[in-house]
């Protein structure tokens, strides 16, 4: 099992990516291929105090870097020696079982689609993060790969999400909800209204429209939406969680009794922070691509990269992409 | 100053609404007109232990109730003796300076638009809640009155939001952000792309695209969006906040040291809960209507109703609706 890691993508690249990849190589029973500017990777090792590479980690040099400002499709096509382009070609050609990048979502999507290719019949790949809820967790699909969607895309997202929930979260008959601004079947824009009718006709366990707050109370296992709304939901949760954490910090550092309480709670607060932190659950699966591709959070640190690598391993081991391919071959046309 | 209160709308009607209205009449220097089924209102008073109505509170009987399941526009037109229809007619005819309802958003919007009417030139009324951020607060407009929007509506929301921020939040040159799935000007669907270009041309202090998490960090004073995305954002914040509160409760009740910590923090936790609770900041203004209309949260209790009434008073006192009318008369066509 080999996981390809883009050393140059993300706010903390290359240092944290290199460190995370090395940690994963040392602790997980896998090979890691680190793709990027070799000189920068070596310097990152020096800065983080690592003298020797683990034997199961290989560096593949790639002289270019795709910047967040670059147009994704153009960059993937023209920067032929970028870490992402080289990494995706390695994945396509069978030199790896999965790829992890904390780079720009657009570039990862473009690279995965143009080089590794979508599963046959899949119209659009979708980002599917696992979100914590009061009673467990659920899959949000799509959370930003496709700002504009058709009802057909959304039905395909529902199929992919359902499959992923069954295979990776071990939920037998996942409850599929459609993100909407109310539970009534008349709610939403034409996109939601048409998708509702189409989902009703599938054999999926479609439970109807769900509001964001009800999904977070455990109202469904897969929450289907267009990438724009999904992104708004994901970023709002992130924003609300940091607001609460910042308020808690202010609270804990005002007055003696609060400081004592903070000490008593220290360990548990860390646990809570971890549960609310999207990085600790690994990265986000890009579903619909013929091989496992994981988008790590842009602000990933070494621990987040390690956990995204672990997620790529789980996806590769359970062979989600091949099973999805079979699934789509059998899927009735929308 | 008289505030009209719909006694029959909301999950906790009529008891909590009646109690909230009575509290407001007793503590705020205003008159309150409570509209609804008089018999039900009297019974609610009995149940909540109130024997005598304050002198500054009047009951206006209305024999019908608009249900959440009713089609909003049809219900406003056909249920001529519903609490909302009667209440809005009182407001239109000058028998009150503002109206508060915890009823269905659709019915409030339909009633306000059909009976009280929009301000001239305003294409759509919009819901504009005040949301807490790490550094203060911001206005989210629209959060659910209009699932489908045009760029022109969004530009008008920006004007209304800016005006409200100046007049009610006392922010001199409010920073207007456009809710988007990234900060770059190329992000979003055609709606965001076109709105971006239009907002650039206005004299508003438009600072560009803003992601939900950055708005929650205090990145702007007015966050403009279509009602569908705004609703997703609002409900996601609500969901995330209740997830955190539920996790904190679990944490506080596991183990002796945590229980001690919980006791030490009790008062401050209540303060935090209140800051995160949308009800404590009052209701949500429906902007663009020719008189003040406040939508209280569907799950409002008596305290939430009182604070929504206080907000209606503030809006009526500062004469926001008339000022908005002047503003729109001077506004260049979009």
Task: Name the features.
homodimer; 334 residues; alpha/beta; seven-stranded mixed β-sheet; five-stranded mixed β-sheet; 12 helices; 12 strands; 48% helix
Describe this structure in words.
The structure is a homodimer of 334-residue chains. In chain A, helix 1 (15-27) packs across helix 2 and helix 9 runs antiparallel to helix 10 (256-276). A seven-stranded mixed β-sheet of chain A has the order 3-2-1-4-12-11-5, with helices on both faces. The first copy, chain A, has a five-stranded mixed β-sheet with strand order 6-7-10-8-9, with helices on both faces. Chain A is 48% helix and 15% strand. Chain A has 334 residues and is α/β, with parallel strands linked by helices. Chain A has twelve helices and twelve strands.
What is the averaged pLDDT score of chain A?
Answer: 92
Oligomer: homodimer
Report strand % of chain A.
Answer: 5-15%
Q: Which pair of chains has the greatest number of interface residues, and how are they split between the two chains?
A: A-B, 57 and 56 residues
> Span from first to last CA of chain A?
36 Å
Widest sheet: strand ordering of chain A: 3-2-1-4-12-11-5
Count of discrete alpha- or pi-helical segments spanning 4 or more residues of chain A = 12
Shape of chain A: globular
**C-alpha-based Rg of chain A, rounded:** 20 Å
Q: Tell me the number of strands of chain A.
A: 12
Strand and helix order of chain A: EHEHEHHEHEEEHEHEHEHHEEHH
Question: Main beta sheet of chain A, described?
Answer: 7 strands, mixed
């Amino acid at each position: 099992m080999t996981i390809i890691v883009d050393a140059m993508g993300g706010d903390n690249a290359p240092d944290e990516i290199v460190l995370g990849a090395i940690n994963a190589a040392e602790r997980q029973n896998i090979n890691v291929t680190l793709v990027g500017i070799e000189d920068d990777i070596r310097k990152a090792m020096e800065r983080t105090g690592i003298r020797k590479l683990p034997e199961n980690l290989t560096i593949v040099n790639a002289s270019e870097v795709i910047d967040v400002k670059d147009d994704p499709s153009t960059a993937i096509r023209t920067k032929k020696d970028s870490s992402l382009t080289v990494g995706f070609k390695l994945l396509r050609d069978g030199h790896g079982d999965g790829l992890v990048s904390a780079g720009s979502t657009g570039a990862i999507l473009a690279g995965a689609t143009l080089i590794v290719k979508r599963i046959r019949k899949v119209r659009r790949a979708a980002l599917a993060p696992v979100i914590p809820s009061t009673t467990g967790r659920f899959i949000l699909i799509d959370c930003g790969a496709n700002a504009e969607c058709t009802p057909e895309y959304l039905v395909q997202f529902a199929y992919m999400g359902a499959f992923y929930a069954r295979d990776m979260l071990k939920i037998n008959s996942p409850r599929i909800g459609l993100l909407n601004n109310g539970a009534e079947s008349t709610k939403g824009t034409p996109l939601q209204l048409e998708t509702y009718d189409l989902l009703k006709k599938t054999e999926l366990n479609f439970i109807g429209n769900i509001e964001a707050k009800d999904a977070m109370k455990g109202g469904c296992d897969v929450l289907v939406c267009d990438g724009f709304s999904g992104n708004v939901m994901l970023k709002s949760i992130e924003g609300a969680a940091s607001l609460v954490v910042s308020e808690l910090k202010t609270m804990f550092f005002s007055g003696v009794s609060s400081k004592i309480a903070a000490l008593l709670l220290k360990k548990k607060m860390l646990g809570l922070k971890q549960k609310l932190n999207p990085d600790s659950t690994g990265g986000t699966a890009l579903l619909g691509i013929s091989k496992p591709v994981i988008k790590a959070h842009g602000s990933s640190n070494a621990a987040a990269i390690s956990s995204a690598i672990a997620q790529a391993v789980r996806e590769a081991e359970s062979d989600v992409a091949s099973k999805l391919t079979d699934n789509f071959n059998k899927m009735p046309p929308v």
